[in-house]
Amino acid sequence: MDTRIEAARSRYAKVRSSYEATAQNLVTEIRHGAIQKNLDCTVEGRAKDVSSYVLKAMSSKSVVDPWEEIYDKIGLRVVVRHTLDLDVARELVCELFGEPVHVLDDRQSDVPENQLRYPRLHLQVGVPPALDVSAGAEGKPTFEVQIRTEASHLWSRMSHLYLYKPSAKLPKVVRRSLYRLLALVELYDSEVERAVIAMEQDRDRDLNLLVSQLERIFYAFCAADYDVELTRKVSGVLLQAVRESDRASYSSRLAAFAAEMRSDLESAYREYGPGSTPASLGTYLLVSQPESVAIFERLTYAPRTLSQVWSANGVPEELLQDMKGVWALN
Fold it and tell me: Phi/psi at 68 (nearest 5 deg)?
């Protein structure tokens, strides 16, 4: 028995539950930060299993002090939609937790044109004391964040299952087949990136971004269908009530507004939104729509401008009056 590994195993087994709780705190922090940054991603996190911790310690011949050197006891994964968001996610992690202790970024590595390699982006970051459930009892813990695209994530899951953690070594032809799939990952990511760039140049870009954000926030309060055509029409009007210089950051402003006014929004949707008595009677129509979030926000910060653009675009005045009445009660 290796006494160093056994001592580290025993120590980790005692504190793993606190590391698991810390991992969930970190996940929540990144999820909230992603909304503020308008970053569409999924975030997962966990504390390493005790058995996985021991296996890593035993299989790493260079490890002298398992407790100090195995730094990914807490691991997080941020999966973004496309390659253009990789750096956005990296910036978010740095903004939330400070500069990484260590960075592994294979994206810029000089890989021969006849070879394929998985582009890793891993950050080792310190856990903020406020999120550390152990309250510093085990020193100053760090965690690892793996940032990848959806396509890379799919390949990574397969590769770890079949290439890195098999019960027996795979035949060469099978291993080669799995590595060849990297070509499809590279092709998929490049085509998605090309499509995203084209969408950025679309004349309806601001409207599309606004509608997506409104839907995302609305579903946090209501699980209900809505009139998509009406949402796009009213959202187009609402954009005119936002200064052009502020439109790029308006989605983030809406997220901050929703967080700040959460209780008021919950009350408005409960009393007048989907499933309420007024909604069943066909009144207060816009409270059951995602654009209600932006209407309430503009009524709070730019009511006069909202009224002006509303009238100028010929939207029925009674719809806005209903929203004013609902918001005045909160």
Answer: -80, -35
Q: 152: closest CA among 184, 177, 130, 193?
A: 184
* Phi/psi of residue 42, nearest 5 degrees: -115, 145
pLDDT (tens digit per residue) in 104-131: 888 776 666 555 566 789 999 999 999 9
CA distance 87 to 252: 18
Query: What gap in Å lies between CA 240 and CA 231, rounded to an integer?
Result: 14
Torsion, CA 120, CA 182, CA 83, CA 192, rounded to 10:
-170
| Contact predicate 234/290, CB 8 Å | no
Domains defined along the chain, listed by start: 3-149 (3.30.460.10), 205-328 (no CATH)
Q: Are 189 and 149 in contact (CB under 8 A)?
A: yes
pTM across the whole model = 0.62
Dihedral of CA atoms 273, 275, 278, 280 in degrees, nearest 10, equals: 130
